[in-house]
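So, is this right?
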Amino acid sequence: MSDREQYIEKAKAKIDEWNAEIDKMKAKVEEADADARIEYQKQLDEARKQRDEAEAKLKEMREASDDAWTDMKAGFDRAWDSISGAFNNAMSRFR
């Protein structure tokens, strides 16, 4: 497996983890009282937004030519750090 394939698989695995966390959050939203539900729903929406952004970036990586891979990887790393931080921030409000 190439470095590129490993990198993409690692990112996909992280997104899969996030999907599982979103499912857990969804259950908490449904169990929460009305006041908490509003705030939880905002956090859930934010987490979904970050996950969708990560999936879009991952799609770009998959579709990049071999020549563009190196340049895209650096940009993806920066974007991933930002997206990951925002996702974790949204998740921390649920704990």
Notes: The chain has a mean pLDDT of 85. The two ends are 37 Å apart (CA to CA).
